[in-house]
Amino acid sequence: MFFVQIPKWKRTKNREIKQESSWENKFFRLYKEIQVILKIFLKKSKN
């Protein structure tokens, strides 16, 4: 019921936000992986 009352532009905006967040999530995950790799690399180079 509530979903039907939401205007169209709000729904499309929500969809855009979801796409954006999924892209940000991918980027953030990649960034975290790179950080982990860098930490390991730094540890190896110190030893």
Description:
- By secondary structure, this protein is mainly alpha-helical.
- Helix content is 91%, strand content 0%.
- The longest helix is centred in the middle third of the chain and has 39 residues.
- It has one domain.
Shape: rod-shaped
Radius of gyration: 20 Å
Approximately how much beta-strand content do the residues carry? under 5%
Distance between the termini: 62 Å
Name the quaternary structure. Answer: single chain
List the domain count as a whole number.
1
Question: Mean pLDDT across all residues, rounded?
Answer: 76
Q: Count the E strands.
A: 0
Please trace the helix and strand order, writing H or E for each element: HH
Helical percentage:
over 70%
Major sheet characteristics: none
Number of helices: 2
Tell me the structural class: mainly alpha
Can I get a quick summary?
This protein is 91% helix and 0% strand. The chain has 47 residues and is an all-alpha fold.
List its salient traits.
47 residues; mainly alpha
Helices and strands, with pairings:
Blueprint lengths: L1 H4 L2 H39 L1
